[in-house]
Amino acid sequence: MSTQHANKISVLVADDHPPLRAGIRLMLSKTPDIYIIGEAGNGDEVAKLLDKLHPDVILLDLKMPNFSPSGFEKWARENYPETVTLVLTAHDRDAYLANMMESGAVGYLDKEMRAEQLISAIRRAALGEDLYTEQQKIRISKWQEGVEKKWNSLSEREKQVLRLLAEGIANKDISSRLYISLKTADKHIERIYQKLEVTSRAEAVVWAIENSSDFPY
Fold it and tell me: Comparing C-alpha atoms, which of 116, 131, 126, 123 is closest to residue 30?
């Protein structure tokens, strides 16, 4: 670290929208104790820059090319425990929220938050604070107790079938793709309905899209 940046909080901004990165850059340029050490626009870049720069804090968008945010965060926790991650996203869904908390991110922030709130969050994260609000923790707990248990109750084959259902694939074509009989495919679908507590293909697909962290990622 140069003398110019001694005792400052270094931030790596990872977002695939240049205007947003520029806005954060401008905002933090006016903040004396924080500086941007690097910027990434996709999953490959953020991993390489983390390895090269070792920032104090990552501001991480969830939706970038070549990127699994939960997979990245688990890898980062294992290999770079001195760096903390703040999710900065427009996607306020319980599945994303719970998944990133479980993966090790220290906070889940709205891109629309005010500048002073973001600056405060970066400072608190650098000090090792947990930034999840009580409301977020309640949402995470409810998701874990309800949705996650149902998802984990599915076998790997049933998850495969559910993914194909979500793609709009007919039962007959599911059986062909998975090299199983139509009767077996129908049985898998029946068990999926039972475990998810739904009564139709449409309800199962909606459940998967709205709730399962594996589908969004």
Answer: 116
0.85 cut: is pTM over it? no
pLDDT digits (tens, 9 = 90+) for 117-167: 999 999 999 999 999 999 999 999 988 888 888 888 999 999 999 989 988
In the chain, the domains with their CATH numbers are 3-139 (3.40.50.2300), 154-211 (1.10.10.10)
Helical ranges in the chain per DSSP H: 18-29, 43-53, 69-79, 94-103, 115-126, 134-143, 149-153, 156-166, 171-177, 182-196, 201-211
Which CA distances in Å does 49 have to 53, 57, 70?
A: 6, 12, 17
